[in-house]
Request: fold
Amino acid sequence: MTEPTRRATLADVAARAGMSKAAVSMILNDRPGSRLSAAAAERVRAAAAELDYRPNPAARILRKGRTRTIGFISDEVTLTRQASGLLGGALEVAKAHDHTVLIAETGGADGAIDEAFETMIDHRVDGILIGLMRARRIALPTTSTDVPIVLVNGVTADGHASVLPDERAAGRAVAERLVRAGHSRIGVVGRLPDAHVRDLSQSATIALRFAGIDAAFAGAGIEPVQIPMLDWQPDLGFDGTVRLLDEHPDVTALLAGNDAVALGAYQALAQAGLRIPDDMSVISFDDEVLAGYQRPGLTTARLPYPEIGALGAEMLLGRRDLSNELVEMPIVERASLGPPRRA
Reply:
């Protein structure tokens, strides 16, 4: 049987470089205050590379009290193609700064975030990111801990650091985009009930999206036609658009609550024999994968999930201050917008 290859030690590197273990440790750990020459440092690093030396993680933890691991508690983030960008952004930052990410998926189950939180503490992570598929306010366990916590795509009532999409600015930008295109007869398809959008446990951002939309139209002196909905689904988007066309045939542009609503609107417009954007312009929010596959492509404000996850990780790693931040939702221009049709 082949003997397992022995892992190189700090003493091996010191012997190869012809220096003391203390000097080698100072160089490999980038300790400040060393008077060792650049040539000595180069010799040590060359010896470490030749021996394929890797620091002992357990020894590093004992010495520094840090695991170089951050926890990512996912509330369905890892289960959805779109919101998984939160995790991707965090992983990229962690890798760039030599950290490992420990991931726990809750699947949205009641109490699962609390259980995952305790698991992360038990594993002595250096910080915890909590990523939510649906941006909302949650309560965290009351466990006493000094571990920094950042919510990505969510908030807490206790004021923990958080990163959210800037929905108010996005709502304003989307509405203003229609106004700049020359539209004044506009339908908003997918106005959710006020009781729903004001309940922060349901959404911490959608009320802001509508506030931005309302402010932009009010500033332009436009009163849009509102088509209310109880939820954002393609079938409801279809029904809402049919109603809009029946009751307000003079409307020239449609602002959908999100891309799923816009998908239903596309089908209703096709059924009515209307062309996008020649007969009806359409704009939306979120930039789901389906938005780019629509024909014509759907212009929409992108939810910046990777940027949100990355910024949260930077906070945990001390590259940014722990705070409450908003990330811009850029408008992805495609082919669904045009000037109003001629009467």
Notes: The domain at 69-164+306-326 is CATH 3.40.50.2300 (Rossmann fold). Residues 186 and 224 are 5 Å apart (CA to CA). The longest strand covers residues 127-138. The mean pLDDT is 89.
